[in-house]
Automatic annotation (TrEMBL):
InterPro entries: Aldolase_TIM (IPR013785), DHO_dehydrogenase (IPR050074), Dihydroorotate_DH_1_2 (IPR012135), Dihydroorotate_DH_2 (IPR005719), Dihydroorotate_DH_cat (IPR005720). It comes from the Bacteria. This is Dihydroorotate oxidase. Catalyzes the conversion of dihydroorotate to orotate with quinone as electron acceptor. One of its GO terms (molecular function) is dihydroorotate dehydrogenase activity. Residues 53-341 form the Dihydroorotate dehydrogenase catalytic domain.
C-alpha cells in the first residue's frame, strides 16, 4: 500500500532509467548494513512455511527470480533475498562492457502495464562483473544465475565473432567459478544484431561451441516469444540434443506492438521490446506447448507479465518450474514477491 499510494506516484513522475539508477545506487547500501537489511526484511521477507524448491540441484528459498535486466551488474545480491526473491539473473552481461543504446531507452506504458525496453545491454562487461561477484559472500538460500548475451557492438556482429563473444564470457565465468547457473540470452530484441541465434542452424553452432567446455552448472536458453509454435519448436528440437542444456526461460520481451491494450500510449519515436502484460498470454501459451511436447526434458522458467498471485498461478499451471519477473515489481512494488510467496504457500503444490 505504501508503495502504491505514496512511493510509486512520486517515482513515476521521473524518468524510468533515473529511478532504476537510484535503486541500483541505494540497493548496495541497504544490502551492506545488517540493521537496514533486517528493516527491509521486516516488511518484505517471506516468513511462512518452507516453500523452497530444488531445481537442477539448486535450492531456491522461494520459487521467484528477479529476471535479467534489473541487476545488470550484480550489485543488488545482498538485498534481493530480503524482499523474498529466491534468486536473481544478473545481466545480461557481455564479453566487453556496453554503454547501451541512445537515451531515452525505457518508456513506461502505465495503462498497458508495460515498459518499452531499449537498453541495449548496458553493462560493465564480464571481467568487471566477475571481480564484483567474487567479493560477494555466498549464502545457500539464494541462487545467482548469470545471463550472457552477445556484446552489443559491430565487432561482435558477424556470426563467428558472435559465437566467440558468448564463448569468452561463458569460459571466463566457468574458469572463475562465478554464478550458480547460466542463461544464454539469444533473443535480445534491442541489440545491434537482434536475434541471430534464434535461427536453428546458428543456434546449433553456438551450443556446440558452448558445449566444448565441461560445465557442471545448469545452462538455460532465454527464448524469443514472437515465433509461431513450429519455429519455436524447431529451436527446442536443437536445444533438446544438447544434454548439458537443462532448460529454457520463456521468455524475452514482446516485439509486437499490436499486443498493447492502449497503443495510444506509445510515443511517436520508439524502439525496443515490450515487457509486462503484453508478454503474459504469449509466454503462457509457449510454456504450455513446451511442457506438453517435451514433458520434463526442460526445466521451464516462466517469465512475462506476472503482476499478481493469479498471474503467478497461471505461470505454474502452464508448466513453469520457477517464475521470473521484473515489470510486476516495478508497477506493484517490492511487496509483490512476499505476496506471491504467501499465496504460493497456501495454494497446492506446483
Ligand atoms: C528494463 C528491462 C531490461 C531488460 N533487460 C534484459 C536483459 O538484459 N536480458 C534479458 O534476457 N532480458 C531482459 N529483459 C527482459 C526481462 O528479463 C523479461 O524477460 C521480460 O521483461 C518479461 O518479464 P516481465 O514482464 O516480468 O518484465 C529486460 C526487461 C526490462 C523491463
Amino acid at each position: 500500500m505504501f508503495y502504491q499510494k505514496v512511493l510509486k506516484p512520486i517515482l513515476f513522475k521521473f524518468d524510468p532509467e533515473k529511478v532504476h539508477n537510484l535503486i541500483v545506487f541505494l540497493g548496495p547500501f541497504l544490502g551492506k548494513s545488517f540493521v537496514l537489511r533486517k528493516l527491509v526484511a521486516l516488511f518484505y521477507k517471506y516468513k511462512g512455511r518452507d516453500i523452497s524448491k530444488t531445481i537442477d540441484g539448486l535450492t531456491y528459498r522461494t520459487p521467484f527470480i528477479l529476471s535479467a535486466g534489473f541487476d545488470y551488474n550484480g550489485k543488488l545480491l545482498n538485498i534481493l533475498p530480503e524482499i523474498s526473491f529466491g534468486g536473481v539473473e544478473v545481466g545480461s552481461i557481455t564479453a566487453r562492457a556496453c554503454l547501451g543504446n541512445k537515451k531515452p531507452r525505457l518508456t513506461r506504458l502505465p495503462k498497458s502495464q508495460s515498459i518499452i525496453v531499449n537498453k541495449g545491454l548496458c553493462n560493465d562487461g564480464v571481467d568487471e562483473i566477475i571481480k564484483r561477484l567474487k567479493n560477494y559472500k555466498r549464502r545457500n538460500d539464494f541462487v545467482i544465475g548469470i545471463s550472457i548475451a552477445r556484446t552489443n557492438d559491430e565487432k561482435a556482429s558477424a556470426v563467428e565473432e558472435g559465437v566467440l563473444d558468448y564463448f569468452y564470457s561463458f569460459k571466463r565465468l566457468n574458469e572463475e567459478d562465478v554464478g550458480d547457473y547460466y542463461t544464454l540470452n539469444i533473443s535480445c530484441p534491442n541489440s545491434f544484431t537482434g536475434g541471430t541465434f534464434t535461427n536453428p542452424a546458428l543456434l546449433s553452432l553456438l551450443l556446440s561451441k558452448i558445449s566444448s567446455i565441461k560445465c557442471h552448472k545448469p545452462i538455460y536458453i532465454k527464448m524469443p516469444i514472437n515465433l509461431e509454435w513450429p519455429e519455436f519448436d524447431n529451436l527446442l528440437k536443437i536445444i533438446e540434443k544438447f544434454e548439458n542444456i537443462k532448460g529454457v526461460v520463456i521468455g524475452n520481451l514482446n516485439k509486437d506492438y499490436n499486443s498493447l491494450d492502449f497503443k495510444i500510449e506509445v510515443p511517436k519515436k520508439f524502439g525496443g521490446g515490450l515487457s509486462g502484460k503484453p508478454c503474459f498470454e504469449i509466454s503462457n501459451e509457449l510454456i504450455k506447448k513446451t511442457k506438453v511436447t517435451y514433458g520434463n526434458r526442460f526445466t521451464i522458467i516462466g517469465c512475462g507479465g506476472v503482476f499478481s498471485s493469479k498471474d503467478m498461478i497461471s505461470k505454474f499451471e502452464a508448466g513453469s518450474d520457477l517464475v521470473a519477473l521484473i515489470t510486476g515489481m516495478i508497477y506493484n512494488g517490492p511487496g509483490l514477491i512476499k505476496e506471491l510467496s504467501n499465496h504460493y504457500a497456501t495454494s497446492h503444490e506446483y
